[in-house]
């Protein structure tokens, strides 16, 4: 396995992995623009895992100074491993590498928000030593179609 920072050439496969995670097709033109902007911004780090020349995992995180911590914090924004490569220790290794990267970037903590319906993912994060100390609330600002919580649309 090779773990490295993503490149602009990885955009399409990262897109595919994240669409699979979300169980929906995102608008590629908007995704590509955001991906390129983040790829050139030191506040973001997109870690990929390659095996046999193919990207099979992605973990995208953001670094920011937060007032309520008075510290620099890392937040995992997206994290997906190809379905045929799950339960092989890749996610565990990606979490470990992301923690090291965040620490090297001066972060004192790493956080992740996860949909309440992703029970297997919750168990994974707990196994990796994370704690569920917070609730995260959200509301749609456009196309508000109610409080329903589903994976993908």
From TrEMBL:
Signal peptide (residue range): none
CDD domains: NAT_SF
Keyword Transferase among record annotations: yes
Keywords: Acyltransferase, Transferase
GO molecular function: N-acetyltransferase activity
One Pfam assignment: Acetyltransf_1
Domain N-acetyltransferase, chain residue ranges per copy: 1-153
Domain of life: Bacteria
PANTHER family: DIAMINE N-ACETYLTRANSFERASE, GH14572P-RELATED
Name of the protein this chain belongs to: GNAT family N-acetyltransferase
Organism name: Clostridium fermenticellae
Source organism phylogeny: Bacteria, Bacillati, Bacillota, Clostridia, Eubacteriales
